[in-house]
User: Which sequence fits this backbone?
């Protein structure tokens, strides 16, 4: 069974731009969660989608948004990028709502 | 404010040693505690704990939760170099109608041959 895939794997953007990251969950998984990982703050929960609905949300500003499609694939969008948004963005999928999660390899975003 | 604190921050041991990693938490409406292992890539799931006093085991790894004292420990026996990683603890909490996961900063374990 293929694992969680994330695209792109690496991305460099300029401050003020916006970016869209993509996550394809394991086949059959209906829940997708997004996390930001930085050396200073560690791993922080962004949001979780289940059946195309955002079910849970962490403490991030409205510049961070996401959506989930009917095939469970998910996208995360960050608008008006700031230098502090440079991080590894991880996506995790699970069979059900709040079930065991499997992480993808991440997208490393660098904002210059 | 919800918080999860892991200790020690880092640890160096020799193969064959037994290690105990700690995770304490203060959150509103605790639901579960999770342990992950992170090597050079994404975290991999180890355990999910929801009930106090029930030990979960997987090979040389085991974990237990104390909901009264608000902590969990992760034990690794007969350590191997392949156990070298960052071990993350996360707590699932329910606040304002939504669930969220709060992560600790991790314990960096290095096992020497």
Assistant:
């Amino acid at each position: 069974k293929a694992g969680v895939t994330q695209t792109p794997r690496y991305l460099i953007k300029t401050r003020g731009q916006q970016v869209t990251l993509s996550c394809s969950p394991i086949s059959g998984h209906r829940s997708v969660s997004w996390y930001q990982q930085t050396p200073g703050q560690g791993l922080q929960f962004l949001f979780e989608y289940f059946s195309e609905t955002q079910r849970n949300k962490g403490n991030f500003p409205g510049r961070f948004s996401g959506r989930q499609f009917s095939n469970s694939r998910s996208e995360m969008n960050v608008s008006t990028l700031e230098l502090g948004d440079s991080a590894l963005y991880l996506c995790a999928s699970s069979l059900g709502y709040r079930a065991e999660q499997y992480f993808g390899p991440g997208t490393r975003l660098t904002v210059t | 404010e919800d918080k999860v604190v892991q200790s020690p921050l880092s640890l160096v041991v020799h193969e064959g040693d037994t290690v105990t990693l700690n995770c304490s938490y203060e959150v509103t409406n605790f639901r579960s505690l999770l342990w992950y292992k992170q090597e050079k890539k994404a975290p991999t799931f180890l355990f999910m704990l929801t009930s106090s006093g029930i030990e979960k085991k997987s090979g040389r790894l085991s974990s237990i939760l104390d909901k009264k004292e608000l902590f969990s420990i992760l034990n690794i026996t007969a350590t191997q170099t392949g156990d070298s990683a960052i071990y993350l603890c996360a707590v699932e909490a329910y606040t304002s109608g939504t669930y969220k996961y709060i992560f600790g900063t991790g314990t960096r374990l290095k096992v020497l041959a």
User: Anything to note?
Assistant: The interface with chain A takes residues 31-32, 41-45, 48, 88, 90, 92, 98-106 of chain B (CB under 8 Å). The two ends of chain B are 41 Å apart (CA to CA). Chain B is about 0% helix and 65% strand. Residues 3 and 26 of chain B are 5 Å apart (CA to CA).
